Amino acid sequence: MTVEEIRGSVGVSNEIDRFPIGMRVLAVDDDPTCLKLLDGLLRKCQYQVTTTNQAITALKMLRENRNRFDLVISDVHMPDMDGFKLLELVGLEMDLPVIMLSGNSDPKLVMKGITHGACDYLVKPVRLEELRNIWQHVIRRKVESKSQSKSNNQDKTNNGGEGGQEAGSGDPNGKLNRKRKDEDEDVEDNGNEDDDPSSQKKPRVVWSIDLHRKFVAAVNQLGIEKAVPKRILDLMNVEGLTRENVASHLQKYRLYLKRISQQANMVVAFGGSKDASSYMRMSSLDGLGDFRTLSGSGRLPNAALSSYSPSGMLGRLNSATGVTLHSLTSPSMIQPTHPQNLTNSIGSLTKFQPVVLPTPPNHQNTNLFQGIPSSFDLGHLHQNGNKPNTQIPDFNPIDESRIFTGPSSFATLGSQSSLKMASSESFNLVSSSSSFLDVPPPMGENFHDQLPPNSSMKYGYSAATNTIPGFGSNINSTASVPLEAQGQRHGQYGKPSYSPYSSNAFSTLAAAAAAPPVNGGGLGGAVSQANDGICGVYNRSNGNGATAMQRSRETERSSTELKMGSGEEYLLEQTKLPSGFVANNGYDSLDDLMNGMMKREQDPTIMMDGEFGFDPYSFGSCIQ
Amino acid sequence: MDRNQMQMHRQIANIRKSLFDQEYLDEQFIQLEELQDNSNPNFVEEVVTLFYRDSARFLYNLDQALEKRPLDFSKLDSLMHQFKGSSSSIGAKKVKIECTHFRDYCNARNAEGCKRTFQHVKKEYTTLKKKLEAYFQMSRQTGPVERACRPR
């Protein structure tokens, strides 16, 4: 790849030739002194700097126009959102390089940065020399993506890889693998095409909802452990897609699932061991066996979950929200704002059946998770378009559980916005909780009945909804789906365990919810409420994600509406996820997330957001 | 530059040097100075002022937190962590050192140690503030040309 090519892709037209001069950086730090210093340093490097002291504002700016920035630098400790969460969301939604900044050089934090996808980690006080080199991360990404496109075209991306080789380390999945395996690769990477690296600027692969769905289906089919890019690629059978594309997508997916499962753990832990059976079910679904432990003990299945130690997560949750998950468990917490909604959502939760709910015909996203049930229940939410009613049930616990069990890594994939992640996470949690309730999800329709309006379940939801504060928008769409429509699901979910967080979410959700009458029920409104409750739990950790989840669930119900417009969008966006929540098959959530994301990207006009009053958080910049 | 000015410059330079020698300031302060230029003529002073304004609330919060019984060490630690990050950004060396001590005591859950160290932190913080204020004032009097002459 020639330098010109790379430069050209950088973005700022008038600065292309002078890159890295003029590279557009977004700096986020709540400490004004540090922010000012960072601003000064970056200007000294002749970058174009935009600063903000709020992560939420940063996310908003990024979502509004993904192409406005080349790089993001973010502090780790911020009051409104955890830096790592922002990092994940940015990575998932906008795929921009993110550099973490902290006063702490604790290796654990650095590791965390890595697992969340940061491309670098700087320790304060930052020095000018360190900042002079950060442009490499932007180039590296461009090169990698180029190589991916190239390989798409020619089945061989060695060139791309080469081009990006300098950044080889940047994308282990991609380049290096590519290069090494190029020789061995048979079909796709037969690589020795004379790809002239500088020959063309191939567009990056856009992971549309359909594509993502196929991806998830392939992964599920193979089993998450056995899912290797080559096989996935074969199963997907999509022309022009390279192994590298799949590989990097898989990487993100895994991260997402991991995150979700972590969340789930949290929930589980709190939810209590009530529904061991339900969990079992959940876990059985996609083999996320780990969750089994969840159900039983109610303890966080750390082992199963991702690298985040549950305690860490909880810690975060606690501190951040101030509302510990424990509160979730307390019955008082559960406040079923919309009893119906809750039931629905809960029902879905309980339904946690690992089974991948068969995607209703109208539900496009459901397939995404076939293989990976729990993580993406959200897909379920997706249903909204078609049959909210039926959909929703599926959505229930199963989705939730899916979410949990699913590799949280995918969360990153799915959730464009933090909401998404949150939602999935929240879902997870919620689902876990639901599972606790022990509502044996007959998969699908019967959720409502199953969920006993137990507190455990309840709060799962409520917690979730709470979390929505920021992302309300996303969730709203999904969540809003009136659970009521679903009927009985859980009456109580409303428990806003995380009231501080959920409050915001709720309003958004409520707004969103109000809109979709999806099934014929007032789900929309109710749902959002429920979502809020549920999301509450994750508010902190997911921040918005949780709520998103919630919402997605709800939206699922109301999916009809949601689905329609943003169908895809919802998927990914947690909040919007109609299917997000325990999507029919449970895996929908992920798919939904993905779809949502993609949708958003593809169709900025998707109204889901608008309908529900989402705010710009919706996936604007989908995966690209 | 006339004699007087030269003298003043020298004086300022000396003050500055002593701040470094006495370890009130460290390398980071020099970074700030380097960022100051024609387009950003008062950068250093601006950052320092911002720091003092913003950090006041940390100190206040820390004071409050230290009054509580029992002490919430993790909260104290987290507050101090942020404060430390800020002070290191402007190169407040002694302040930073005391902050580190404070955090060590926090980790050891030593309440007395924390309170004692916190007094040190405040003392260093206030001392530095006065010195910097004097320094900036003098610099302003001698004029911006001083910046360029500052010895490194």
Q: Topology, please?
A:
The complex is a heterodimer of chains A (624) and B (152).
Chain A: H1 3-10, E1 24-28, H2 32-44, E2 48-52, H3 55-64, E3 71-75, H4 83-94, E4 98-102, H5 107-115, E5 120-123, H6 128-132, H7 135-154, H8 158-163, H9 172-184, H10 209-222, H11 229-236, H12 243-271, H13 276-286, H14 290-297, H15 310-321, H16 325-329, H17 339-351, H18 379-382, H19 388-405, H20 408-414, H21 418-437, H22 447-450, H23 455-467, H24 472-480, H25 483-486, H26 499-514, H27 523-542, H28 544-557, H29 559-572, E6 579-580, H30 588-602, H31 607-612
Parallel strand pairs in A: 1-2, 1-3, 3-4, 4-5
Helix pairs in contact in A: 1-7, 3-4, 4-20, 4-21, 9-12, 10-11, 10-30, 11-12, 12-14, 12-15, 12-19, 12-20, 12-21, 13-14, 13-19, 13-21, 15-27, 17-19, 17-21, 17-23, 17-27, 17-28, 19-21, 19-28, 20-21, 20-30, 21-23, 21-27, 21-28, 23-26, 23-27, 23-28, 24-26, 24-27, 24-28, 26-27, 26-28, 27-28, 28-29, 29-30
Chain B: H1 3-21, H2 27-35, H3 43-67, H4 73-90, H5 93-107, H6 111-142, H7 145-149
Helix pairs in contact in B: 1-6, 3-4, 3-6, 4-5, 5-6
Distance between the termini of chain A: 20 Å
What CATH calls the topology of chain B is Four Helix Bundle (Hemerythrin (Met), subunit A)
How many structural domains can be distinguished in the coordinates of chain B?
1
* Secondary-structure element string of chain B: HHHHHHH
Number of helices of chain B: 7
Shape of chain A from CA axes?
A: globular
Give an account of the 3D structure.
With 624 residues, chain A is mainly alpha-helical. In chain A, 58% of the residues lie in helices and 4% in strands. Chain A contains 31 helices and six strands. In chain A, strands 2-1-3-4-5 form a five-stranded parallel sheet, with helices on both faces. In chain A, β3 (71-75), α4 and β4 (98-102) form a beta-alpha-beta unit. The model of chain A is unreliable at 10-15, 156-200, 272-589 and 599-624 (pLDDT under 50). With 152 residues, chain B is an all-alpha fold. Chain B has a single domain (3-142), classed as HPT domain (Four Helix Bundle (Hemerythrin (Met), subunit A), Up-down Bundle), CATH 1.20.120.160. Chain B contains seven helices and no strands. Chain B has helices at 3-21, 27-35, 43-67, 73-90, 93-107, 111-142, 145-149. Chain B is elongated, with a radius of gyration of 18 Å. Chain B starts with a helix and ends with a helix. The chains are: A mainly alpha (624), B mainly alpha (152). Chain A binds chain B through residues 31-34, 36-37, 40-41, 43-44, 77, 102-104, 124-125, 127-128, 319, and chain B through 28, 31-32, 34-35, 40, 43, 46-47, 50-51, 54-55, 78, 81-82, 84-86, 88-91.
